[in-house]
Amino acid sequence: MLDRVLLTNDDGIDAPGMAIMEAIAAEIAKEVWVVAPEHDQSGQSHAISLHHALRVSDRGGRRFGVTGTPGDCAAMGICHIMKDCLPDLVLSGVNRGLNLGKETVFSGTVGGAMTAMMLGVPALALSQGYTDRKNVSWDSSRKLGAATIRRLLDLGWGADAILNINFPACPAEEAGEMTLARQGAGIIAGMNVETRTDPRGMQYHWLNFHRSSRTQGPESDYTAHRAGRIVVTPLRYDRTDEDAYATLATQLPRLP
Prior knowledge:
This protein is of the alpha/beta class. It has one domain: Stationary-phase Survival Protein Sure Homolog, Chain: A (3-Layer(aba) Sandwich). About 25% of the residues lie in helices and about 30% in strands. The chain has six helices and eleven strands. A nine-stranded mixed sheet has the order 3-4-2-1-5-6-7-11-8, with helices on both faces. Helix 1 (about 15-30) packs across helix 4 (about 140-155) and helix 2 packs parallel to helix 3 (about 110-120). The longest helix is centred in the middle third of the chain and has 17 residues, at about 140-155. The protein is globular. The model has no long low-confidence stretch (mean pLDDT about 95).
């Protein structure tokens, strides 16, 4: 059993997924600490607040709310709140909804875990699929989360990556085995801008993703998810495209 874990998320400290995450963490660690956003911070990616102050509210029982992003929360937890008793592991989630494909670049759940990894603490991002957004079943993550984390800790992974875990939208007993997958192409096909007018006659705008099905590839996270598996994908900061690098290397100089 781990000595202590730090939890964060992007849905907010009072979100149902945080309660699931706390229950999972209690099975694998002696101490569970929560440093999470006061409000929903979905879509914040790896954002860090550099131009406004952060406020922290002590909720009691090693639980702290932060007026910032998941990245802010990971930094506050590791570099401030727990600086004298660093966590053995950071768990970000459990997110309401999947974090698969290219969409992971926007994910605050993934961003919180990536920030922790950058600060030297191993981290996992956990997400729960659903079929009804208003009535999410957390059964597979709640019942299988602790065993999944224990197995991954036993296996180990590189210090320069996080593991992105997605649980299927089905009862725990129907979930497929834990499966390693690559980041797929995702299903984002563009963005929509919806323009409205407020009561004072001023325009405002909502951004939304336009999604469509795409060919993902046989090893992709989406393919594994559609097969009902618990999907595990290692993610890292290095986004160097090797094909483009090789093409440009024929025309541009490189350092020896």
